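SAMPLE LOG
Freezer: B-3
Tube label: C17
Construct: single chain, 113 aa
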Amino acid sequence: MAARVETKVTVASAATFVSGLALWALGKYVFKGGTVPDVLQSWIYAAAPAAITFLAAYRAPHTHRPDLRPPEVPTLPPGYAPPSAALAPPKEETLIPTVPKIPTSSPIVPPGT
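STRUCTURE (predicted):
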């Protein structure tokens, strides 16, 4: 069974055709005299169809598909608490840094003794 073509696809295809006609008219009548630099012409030829097609498809209404169900959201079991809520804040004495003790008797002999 063939599905109906979505509205956004139809509008984007039509906009691509219209942008092609607009670029043909620009090339035939506006860009003909060489008043527009070649670099700018190439940017227009590249960017105009993409921008026109994107904007037309973005503005087109979305086609809803009745055969697709919305996704099911999993439910949490009763009494479940996320792990972050079950953790207690750290005690203040654990936040105080401790310095390790240095041994008083050193087996290392300084040079020159």
